Amino acid sequence: MFASPVYVVTIILALLAIAEVLSLATKAWVPSLLIIIAGYLVLLWTGVLPPDLIPKSAFTSVGVVLVGAVIAHMGTLIPLRQIKTQYKAILIALSGIIVGAVLILVVLGPLLGYPTAVAGTGPVTGGLIAYLITAQKLTEAGFPSLVAVAAIVLGLQSLVGLPLANILLRKYATKLRDNGAFDAPVAHAAALASRGKLRADAPASVEQLLEAQPKRTFQLVPEKYQQPSTLLFLLFVAASLATWLDSLTGLNYGVWALLLGLLGRVLGIFPEKAMEKANAFGFGLIAVIVVIMASVSSVTFETVKATLGPAILILAVGAIGIMIGGWLASKLFRWDPLKGMPIALTALFGFPGDFMLCQEVSRSVGRNEHERKAIFDELVTPMLVAGFTTVTTASILVASVLVSTL
User: Fold this and answer.
1) What are the DSSP calls for 120-151, one per residue?
2) pLDDT of residue 193 exceeding 90
3) What is the DSSP letter of 213?
4) First and final C-alpha spacing in the chain
């Protein structure tokens, strides 16, 4: 019935549209990505959609091709003056996944068995790539039945991480807003910081208000030639280079794409918000979400029933450990834990969930366009950097090390 590509695309977009409407209606208390994943799983389990429909669709193939370009675009979003501060976000994210992994192994290893704990730890600390490494090594080590544990953890991890991060980010944004951090007069923000109500070294938004971002004079492509085809070509060159560097170094192409996008922005190769200027970011983000949907297509209802207990325990203990690690590191670096813990929780959803959360929180907490932009700028850089740190790099190392101990 749904074999025609137009039917597949219509079903996918209907699910995305419903998720967006519900997210707006609930003022982002229910994140749209959570609705998309949960709704898709329900459609699979009830037989409305066959499990191979989206994975085999042309839309998924388009999404796979677009991922690198979208990630390179994300690099052009990062405010250049904030880069020097993001080592703290990286260390907070790493602290979260380390504490989370240790807590799972120590608490659940004796209860569920060490192989089962390892099967769930890799996906908890990252995303699809960590899952693939874990699944392959489990099969090679003689534990094929435990692949289901890793699969269900991968499929449900965002359902745990997204609501937790959403609540914490909303509280953080509301706190800053109510303390006057986003008030239009710069002098007022400076006064708040001087009275100790806001630390100038913690919320980067104060620095943004006090220091105007310099305008880059050199651009490889002059403004009048920054047409959609030209910008998309440059983004796909970055994606191609990232893919080549992945094969050359073994470091995931997502990390290279982000770095190339950022470097291109610094050197004037890309304009700020390159894919948005090409009028292609909305479609690109949808295509990436389709790839995520395809990645959970193998999670059947029977799999959930068989592994639900261990998966819930692993997710719960892992999330608690990640938040503990994020809280401890936030205190160490004098960041607000309401900001640090969501940064650590990006391990449970990564990109594009981190970006979508920043969008949803900013538009729901901000009372006007000025506040919405200020909140988004405050959240997006550390969330993106942390998400790529955990999902594309650190989780791969954690998964590789742990499965080698089986």
Assistant:
1) HHHHHTS-HHHHHHHHHHHHHTT-GGGHHHHH
2) no
3) P
4) 45
- What tokens appear for 387 in the block? 């998400």
- Pick the closest to residue 34 from 267, 325, 357, 270 (CA basis): 357
Q: Would you place residue 16 in the very low, low, confident or very high pLDDT band (cuts 50, 70, 90)?
A: confident
Contacts of 121 by beta carbon, 8 Å cutoff, 6+ apart: 100, 101, 104, 105, 314, 318, 398, 399, 402
Q: Answer whether 98's CB lies under 8 Å from 325's CB.
A: yes
- Say what the pTM is: 0.65
Q: Which of 98, 70, 148, 64 is nearest to 347 (CA)?
A: 98
57 three-class SS: coil
Question: Prior bond to 5 cis, omega within 30?
Answer: no
**pLDDT digits over 243-300, tens only?**
899 889 876 677 788 789 888 888 888 888 888 888 888 888 788 778 777 777 877 7
Provide the CA 158 distance to its chain's centre, in angstroms: 10
CA–CA gap between residue 104 and residue 330 (Å, rounded)? 21
State pLDDT tens for residues 136-167: 777 778 887 777 788 778 777 877 888 899 99
- Find the helix packing angle between 114-124 and 128-140, rounded to 10°: 160
Count of Cβ atoms closer than 10 Å to residue 281 Cβ:
18
pLDDT of residue 200: 39
